[in-house]
Design brief:
The protein is an alpha/beta fold and about 325 residues long. It contains ten helices and twelve strands. Helix 3 packs across helix 10. The longest helix is centred in the last third of the chain and has 25 residues, at about 230-255. The radius of gyration is 20 Å and the shape is globular.
Length: about 325
């Protein structure tokens, strides 16, 4: 049996899995992700990958290649040019280092692109030719599927959708620029919105979820209170969902996708958030009464989209015999 290895490389953990050609995860490990140095990061990957290769060998699984997804802009040579949350990945030759450390052909891409590969092959995008994957988490990532393949742009930097300028006089994004969509419509943006509402005294349930500490309020506290049915938390989500939907509509106006698939941590709120985005999305869409519906779908692979998608990407460089 042949398989590939997928790596989901984050700021706090490295998640590695052996994945069959049908998308089944056969073996999986997680390890802390040292982010201070490239050498430490590669050593963590090598150790975890080595353990998985031993497990795969024991059950007769042949591993042909390794793929990695990382929250960075990644060029066509697999060099991670910039990763705001992983300091070691600035102009880092990650593909070559992973290949050296594992002894396998390697490929590296942005984590949202990798998740799009996973959903395209084995998840909610199966059978689609043109679609969008948007990750709503600490930030906002994007994967654009055009003609059945993930679009990377001229330099591999396409689909940094969180960083189009939503309001040039608005909040400062984590990247340092003012008013990016990510500053409003990400998990970080939800936390900022919630703290503003709490400061006005309009969200007591959210404040209670944060044990009364207004400065500690995050998007997670909004989710907790909203899932408990608190009207003030649901009102915060109404405002937030509209900010998300404005961005979705702008992207849909540009790209005319078959569907928009949402992944990332915020999707764990389920219908309490996703249904609100679905309701507000057509309000902002050009010619909404005269065009086919664009469904908004939750990702099918859950928190395994990264490792499965990275393994799918690795099939492109795996030996054919």
């Amino acid at each position: 049996m042949s398989a590939t290895i997928g790596i989901d490389l984050g700021g706090t953990h490295v998640r590695v899995a052996v994945v069959d050609a049908d998308g089944t995860v056969r073996h999986e490990h997680r390890a802390p992700s040292p982010s201070a140095t490239l050498a430490g990061l590669v050593d963590a990957i090598a150790g975890t990958t080595g353990a998985l290769l031993a497990e795969a060998g024991a059950d007769g699984t042949r591993v042909g290649a390794v793929g990695a997804g990382v929250a960075a802009i990644v060029d066509p040579d697999g060099v991670a040019r910039y990763a705001p949350n992983v300091p070691a990945l600035v102009d880092a030759p990650l593909r070559d280092e992973i290949a050296r450390a594992t002894g396998l052909p390697a490929v590296v891409d942005n984590d949202a692109n990798v998740a799009a590969w996973g959903e395209l092959a084995h998840g909610a995008m199966r059978g689609m030719r043109n679609a969008l994957l948007l990750t709503l988490g600490t930030g906002i990532g994007g994967g654009i599927v055009l003609d059945g393949r993930v679009y990377r742009g001229t330099n591999g930097f396409a689909a940094e959708v969180g960083h189009w300028q939503f309001d040039p006089r608005g909040r400062t994004c984590a990247c340092g620029e003012p008013g990016h969509w990510e500053a409003w419509a990400s998990g970080t943006g939800l936390g900022v919105l919630a703290r503003e509402v709490v400061a006005r005294g309009d969200a007591p349930s959210v404040l209670a979820a944060a044990a009364g500490d207004a400065a500690a309020v995050t998007g997670e506290h909004v989710g907790q209170a909203a899932l408990a049915g608190s009207a003030d938390a649901l009102a915060v989500l109404d405002t937030f969902a509209d900010l998300v939907a404005i961005g979705f509509a702008g992207l849909a106006n540009l790209l005319d996708p078959e569907a928009i698939v949402i992944s990332g941590g915020l999707v764990n709120m389920g219908p309490v958030l996703v249904d609100r985005i679905r309701t507000r999305f057509p309000v902002h869409l050009e010619g909404r009464a005269h065009r086919p519906e664009i469904p908004i779908l939750a990702a099918a692979l859950g928190d395994r989209a990264g490792v499965i998608g990275a393994a799918v990407l690795a099939r492109q460089v795996a030996p054919t015999s």
